[in-house]
Specification:
This is Peptide deformylase. The active site is at 178. Its EC number is 3.5.1.88. The protein has a 5-stranded antiparallel sheet with strand order 2-3-4-9-10, sandwiched between helices. A two-stranded parallel ribbon has the order 1-11. It starts with 27 loop residues before the first helix and ends with a strand. The chain is α+β, with helices and mostly antiparallel strands. A hairpin with a 2-residue loop joins strand 6 and strand 7 (138-144). It is built from 4 helices and 11 strands.
Length: 216
């Protein structure tokens, strides 16, 4: 079956492919624009803010308030010129992230995941990519970080429907990075002490290009 039966779909739910993964690469410009035009851009929380360093709460209410949060997240992501954004990056303690990210083939992916969980890959599918990684919550800093070049995430969409998302290359990195955020981990937490110190030095020496919330 190429996509879910239309009668079973709720408004805004993405279709799925024959393996049950969302088709998030169609109508990307229109969908992303609709989200962010309904939303209000918020400043980005940065490393050191307590909300970034603890596991977020599960999303249990799939209501208008959640939809407004999602819209604001897309608006904030666009302002910051990011490819993914977790709710705690705008100070909200909920397990939801949005993405607008290309894969290594240049295919654009746009979507929303609530209560994400990374699927553990068997050893024979774990090919590591040690490309540079950055984070809107560690502005202007970058460091190489080895992650699997393929990722699968299960969760729910903003209407509460179960979904599966998969990605390769840069998009796989995005899915892992944003899921990490919602469990209290920044990418710099996965670096060596020396590399983490260097990333924080880069952040301290440069000015972010988007509004951030200063840590008191």
């Amino acid at each position: 079956m190429a996509q879910q039966d239309t009668d079973q779909q709720h408004a805004g739910v993405l279709p799925v492919d024959d393996e049950g993964f969302v088709i998030d690469s169609e109508d990307c410009e229109e969908r992303e624009q609709a989200y962010r035009e309904r939303g209000t851009s918020r400043p980005i929380t940065v490393v050191g803010n307590p909300v970034l360093h603890k596991e977020c709460k599960d999303v249990t209410e799939f209501d208008d308030e959640l939809q407004q949060l999602v819209d604001d997240m897309f608006a904030s992501q666009r302002t910051a010129e990011g490819v993914g954004l977790a709710a705690n990056q705008i100070g909200v303690d909920l397990k939801v992230f949005v993405y607008d990210c290309p894969d290594d083939e240049g295919v654009r992916h746009v979507g929303v995941v609530c209560n994400p969980k990374l699927v553990e890959l068997p050893a024979d599918r774990r090919r590591l990519d040690d490309s540079n990684e950055g984070c809107l919550s560690v502005p202007t800093a970058y460091a190489p970080l080895a992650r699997p070049d393929y990722a699968e995430v299960t969760g729910q969409d903003e209407k509460g429907n179960p979904i599966k998302v998969r990605g390769t290359g840069y998009f796989a990195r995005c899915l892992q990075h944003e899921t990490d955020h919602l469990y209290g981990y920044l990418y710099i937490d996965r670096l060596s002490k020396r590399e983490r110190k260097d990333a924080l030095r880069q952040m301290a020496e440069n000015e972010p290009r988007y509004p951030v919330v200063a840590n008191d």
